[in-house]
């Protein structure tokens, strides 16, 4: 009987996928997929993936003469890494004839075939009574609904006098991953952290031992958000690489509900999920920006948005779309169909304005023409309905995708510069009023008036650098008092007139004046003949880099990850793996550590630190927790969580 049910579900989902115009498609795909995800371990998905691998991949990967990674070597990778390689990486040309579902089955088979990767967990476990009444200490990406990333003196004991005493207390290495991006959450003495292989660990935050763990079907991308409902229940909320949102019981790790937040086949969740008043707000981005770099890709049909869900059930309340659905617009230079409008991904974590009952997000560029007025913009939405309240577009006509890095036919005529708003919008209280602070990849900071008409929207704007597609302001600024702290990522580029200005900047919130700046530099001699390709093109590169040389001197060294600020200090990680703590008043570096080094982790594994990107540092009591490793664009791979502590 069970086999018949399984066959029925799979067939129904398959029929729905084929009936692209049928109204029943969305319902069947979402509900059928949810059932498959919940019961994946009982379904023959790996067997199907093995069959597809044998048919389409084994002739190269099982043949030593082809010098391709073996089946065993591939099994050490996370599912998300395998999907990236097939979707828009170096394996894309070979996998182009396979559907997304078939590529997913192959990745599921390979990622699930290394059965001994987690044998170490038994020795790393520790017993700890679950304090179900413990309050969340760090519960969200922005460390509060205003996304200020501020830690008060009541939350941390680390200050300017003792920060120099920070030393590594314990470390934790994650097998099968080379990127660390999911910012942890803290409830009492428990630290919750997810990884790219889909594992969720509950660690004792004082020792790093494993209290509990569970496995998702795909990699965990977003930060871990702790939602405390009106009935006092707590939920762990996060999104995976399939754009599925999960809500888990933090005490049992049982799945309470799950919901697909995909708007289309290219949807992914890159920002984190915000919680307010029994509602979750999910930012939706897309990876078609990368897929468009492939000559065979029909560009472009996806767009970004925001979805509001009921926190207790996952029921969808409303969806805001960044553009209308794409339609056929003509042909590209290679004679392929060209669709638009597209793009305007929402990379940032939504900001909650309780006073005005609004939600603020930043958007990215358009991928194909026609351009929209919602790209490279700050958007204000009504919290209850998702209706647009107002929008401010900083850069009009910015149409760009990865084909612009390789001269591909999908690159539009007169392309833009990929100037997203990737950092979360910050709500600031200053001089008896409120301002919205927004940082763009153009290297410019905007202070916006949340009230009034569009003509009065910009209060001030300050350009700190020229920015690039991988430069300017990336993942998160921070606010303390009347000062805004801005990390600049600027990489070196061979562009006429471009001068990179990576570093940390402090601005006066009232007028945008620079209070101080601290440039960061590369402290080694880099061999420019080995520089990585620009941005997403590096994913397609088949060149091999000696790991020792990679770690000896990093090409990237700017400040891309979100930063964290306290009453006295600014915490910032660099793309070269350097962790710095600055004096908030002067910009002087008070403490630094190189995390891009080998680590004999306390959980019994050999790990390695790398670039610090995406997730910000979390600071609790006398502890500083740092995720080290990120290789998406040719930065330094790594797989460790480092826990630093000041001396008693």
Explained architecture:
The chain is an alpha+beta fold and 648 residues long. The protein contains eleven helices and 39 strands. The strands form ten sheets. A five-stranded antiparallel beta sheet has the order 1-4-5-6-7, with no helix packed on it. Strand 4 (185-187) and strand 5 form a beta hairpin. Helix 1 (2-18) crosses helix 2. The model is unreliable at 1-29 (pLDDT under 50).
Q: What low-confidence regions span 5 or more consecutive residues with pLDDT below 50?
A: 1-29
Tally of contiguous helical segments? 11
Number of strands: 39
Measured on Cα atoms, how large is the radius of gyration? 23 Å
Give me a quick take on this structure.
The chain is an alpha+beta fold and 648 residues long. Helices cover 14% and strands 30% of the residues.
